[in-house]
Amino acid sequence: MARIVLIGEAMLELARKGGDWQLSYGGDTLNTAIHLARKGHDTAYFTAIGIDPLSQDLKSQWAAEGLNTALVLEHPSSNTGLYAISTDAQGERSFTYWRETSAAREMFNLPAASSALESIATADLLAFSLITLAILPPAARSKLLNLAQMVRSKGGQVAFDGNYRPRLWSNADEAAAARDAAIACATIGLPTLEDETAICGESDPAAVSAHWQSLGCTETIVKLGSEGCSLPDGSVIAPDAVLEPVDTSGAGDAFNGGYLAARMNGADIADAACAGHALAGWTIMRPGAIPAKG
Predict the structure, then answer these.
(1) What amino acid positions are annotated as catalytic residues?
(2) Which of 43, 169, 220, 258 is deepest in the core (most CB within 10 A)?
(3) Domains in the chain, start-ordered, CATH in brackets?
(4) Consecutive sets of 10 residues in the chain, 294 residues long: mean pLDDT of each?
(5) What are the beta bridge partners of residue 125?
């Protein structure tokens, strides 16, 4: 079975449930990792959490989902970040974050990081996002990009999601430069058109795809929200049905999970896109970034 590793920041999640708040977990690459593990893939997550009870409970929950937690490092003095989700009547979400001192920001600097990186270098698929790069200090960003190049040079796949959160960057130019450096390391690109418009003003899916492919990421799938996604050849795959979402949290992450799971099982690009839409559709009809199985 292929080995898959995702890298990023896992966070505690507060979501409305009636008049109360429900505590769970989320994070873009973590969401994708859980979906991959649920589909039976050998999936590990590289991050750092705290040693506090909440952090340890998260780790136990991920293991119960089938996620390999051997690469989940522990920071002796920093805790796991936190975010709260609010949704409007149409299911659109907004976030409030408490992540400035998140343990995940130091994952590459912890003593156990060296052995973790040696293990990751031989993965069959490595996946990370622009959020992953955003939370890391410059030296750690360089380590991650070097790691991605190493995985690619050994014949592994590298998937990159250009998930843009403006508040994590000093300006859009800085984010665009980091995005382009990551694209050049990737074999599978998973940008969202809305993010590309926000980061560089581009609103044409074909132009987005051309830019990503010109940097060496030939398998670029541009996510178009409810309209579907644009494939590398410019064709558009739409979802089977137009849904009225309960909660759009984690929709793009679920698409990534469905798409990558299918590709790792040998599906072609079009069939993998359909699998991505199916999982995203299941997710948005339930509350939370990682809805309970069932």
Answers:
(1) 253
(2) 43
(3) 3-284 (3.40.1190.20)
(4) 93 80 88 97 97 92 96 94 79 77 94 96 98 97 98 98 95 98 98 97 97 97 95 95 81 97 98 97 85 81
(5) 4, 157
